[in-house]
Specification:
Helices cover 0% and strands 7% of the residues. The protein has no helices and two strands. A two-stranded antiparallel sheet has the order 1-2. The model has no long low-confidence stretch (mean pLDDT 87).
């Protein structure tokens, strides 16, 4: 696992980059989409589901 990305909080507990302190360890992230006009239209494109999508 890469080091924590300082300042990035994530509560997606079934992502392989998530840790129990709600930090992201992806190394880098990509947030999409490029034409969003509302928060609900954005998403972390770096998300990877952990094995069986059940890690915590």
């Amino acid at each position: 696992m890469d080091e924590e990305i300082k300042g990035i909080t994530c509560n997606v507990k079934n992502c392989i980059h998530h840790d129990k302190s709600d930090n992201c360890h992806a190394g880098k992230i990509f947030v999409g989409t490029h034409d969003a006009t509302q928060t609900s239209q954005t998403a972390c494109e770096t998300f990877e589901c952990c094995e069986n999508c059940e890690c915590q």
